[in-house]
Every structure is written in C-alpha cells, then in structure tokens.
C-alpha cells in the first residue's frame, strides 16, 4: 500500500474498488456512452486528455468505430462526429466548458465528471457521474483511471485481471524502483496515453524531469538522453530489442511484464508520490497547480 499519510495515498489505494464500481456503472449507462459504429471525438485537459487518448485507441482497436482524441482547446470544430465525449474531474475546466458551449445543438455530447452539480451539467446533453472516485488531492489518480475503467468496461472488457494486478501493485514494496534524475515513459497503442499520464504524474508530484513517447519513436532521437542514473519505463508489450538497447546505454529499464498496463500506472503513481516525499515536497499540493484550471477567458 501507499504510505505517508497524504490524501493521495488513500486515493491511490482505493483504485481497485473504484474500478469494480465503474464496471458495474458501465452497464447502467450503456445507452449514454458511444455506441458501436458511431464516429466519436473524446476531449479533455491534462490527465483527462491522456485518458481520452487511451480510450480512443482501445475503441478503434476493438472495431467500435472511428475515435479521435483531442485536448479540449484544440478540437477542430469543423469535423463531423456522431457523439462527443468529454472527461473532466471537476466539471469546471474552462476549455471543456467552452468546447461544449460551441458544440451545443450540433452534436450529442456526454460528460464524465466526479462532480455532477458542477457547471458541466448545464452545457452537455448527458452526464455520467463518478462521485465515488472524486479526490481531494490536486494530483489526479483514481478519477482518471476510474474514468478509463468505465470506458474499457463499456467496450466489453473484463477488468477482473486489471483489478487483481492493481491490488498486487499496491501490495508491492517500492524498494529501489526508479525515482532518479530522469524517467522516459513509453507506450504502444492505447498505452501511449498511459505513458504520457505517468510522465505527467512524475512532473506534477515530484517536479522531476520526465518524458513520454510512442515506444517505436524512442529510437528516433529520445534514446540519446538515456544514461546511468536514468530510467526507461515501458507500458505494455515492448518492441523487440528495446530492453537490450536501453541496457547498452547504462540506463535502467522497467516494463509492465504481464500486468495490465492500467494497473502498472498505479505503480508509476506510487513512484511519483514517493519521489515527491523524498524531495521534501507535498504530493497533494504540487507547485503552481490547482485542482481545476478556471480561466478568465480562453
């Protein structure tokens, strides 16, 4: 289990149970979430955008239909979609609300949020509430993965293995797991979004240098920063030869093995929090960040 008595510790530990509840909820909201064959856009900001990326890749790979993911501020309004899905923990994020206002009356919109009474309820057509996954910490952990668990379950995935893997990760001692001077997170397909999220957690919570790339792109330049004292961390199935190439640089290499990659993200969350504590930082309240980004104007 996580340690240290911070709010984020308890939020990280609660993820397996949240995922189970999300799996049950997916059946209840089946008529609200994207249907097979629909052309769908998914938008969010920060962590929510990375969860959108993961879902989009999973949905297309499952043959459910064309699915694009965008940061809310960059979604092209001229494209035609059958449904637009947005993810926002607080329901107050300026860019998300502005996007929904622009789309009103042109396409069905669905919001996933932890706060059903937030302003998002006034600007989207349907709302899926994950109040049980809301958080007090500024750093998102359980809301993000629970939203993704809901969406994975909506695609027909059985998350029993993911839940078991997450429980195993939470019971693992961190020991000498990497929290050095730099970590490069890699992914393939849907796990590219997870790699970006893991890198964001390390930056947010611990202020450490972290990067994220599609795994096959890592050789095209980013591997040049690999060296002793740094880590390359792979989510999902690694490309052939990657581990050996990283080893040749002297950098450490870590992958998820047979674990579900979403459960492996829990490990990265724990490493980020531990690194923050080791640096004398408060992982619940990262520097320069607030729980929700609300702007005067976009």
TrEMBL record:
Upper taxonomic lineage: Bacteria, Bacillati, Actinomycetota, Actinomycetes, Pseudonocardiales
Metal-binding in keyword set: no
A Pfam family hit: SIS
SUPFAM superfamilies (alphabetical): SIS domain
InterPro entries the UniProt entry points to: GlmS/AgaS_SIS (IPR035466), SIS_dom (IPR001347), SIS_dom_sf (IPR046348)
Signal peptide: none
Residue ranges crossing the lipid bilayer per the database entry: none
Origin: domain of life: Bacteria
MF GO annotations: carbohydrate derivative binding; isomerase activity
Protein name, UniProt field: Fructoselysine-6-P-deglycase FrlB with duplicated sugar isomerase (SIS) domain
Record bears the keyword Isomerase: yes
Keywords: Isomerase, Repeat
GO BP: any one term: carbohydrate derivative metabolic process
Entries under Gene3D superfamilies matching the protein: Glucose-6-phosphate isomerase like protein, domain 1 (3.40.50.10490)
């Amino acid at each position: 289990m996580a340690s240290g008595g911070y709010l984020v510790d308890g939020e990280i530990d609660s993820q397996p149970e949240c995922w189970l509840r999300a799996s049950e909820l997916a059946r209840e909201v089946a008529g609200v979430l994207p249907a097979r064959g629909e052309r769908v856009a998914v938008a969010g900001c920060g962590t929510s955008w990375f969860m959108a990326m993961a879902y989009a890749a999973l949905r297309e790979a499952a043959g459910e239909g064309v699915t694009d993911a965008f940061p809310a501020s960059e979604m092209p309004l001229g494209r035609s979609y059958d449904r637009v899905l947005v993810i926002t923990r607080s329901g107050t994020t300026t860019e998300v609300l502005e996007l929904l206002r622009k789309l009103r009356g042109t396409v069905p919109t669905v919001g996933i949020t932890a706060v059903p009474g937030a302003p998002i309820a006034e600007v989207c057509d349907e709302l899926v509430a994950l109040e049980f996954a809301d958080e007090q910490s500024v750093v998102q952990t359980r809301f993000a993965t629970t939203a993704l668990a809901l969406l994975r379950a909506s695609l027909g995935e059985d998350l029993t293995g993911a839940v078991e893997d997450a429980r195993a990760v939470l019971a693992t001692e961190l020991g000498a797991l990497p929290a050095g001077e730099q970590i490069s997170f890699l992914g393939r397909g849907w796990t590219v979004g997870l790699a970006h999220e893991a890198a964001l957690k390390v930056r947010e919570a611990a202020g450490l240098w972290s990067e994220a790339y599609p795994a096959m792109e890592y050789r095209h330049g980013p591997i040049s920063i690999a060296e002793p004292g740094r880590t390359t961390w792979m989510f999902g199935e690694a490309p052939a030869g990657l581990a050996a190439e990283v080893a040749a640089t002297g950098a450490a290499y870590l992958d998820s093995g047979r674990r579900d990659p979403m459960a492996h993200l829990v490990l990265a969350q724990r490493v980020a929090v531990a690194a923050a504590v080791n640096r004398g930082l408060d992982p619940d309240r990262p520097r320069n960040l607030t729980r929700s980004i609300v702007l005067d104007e976009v």
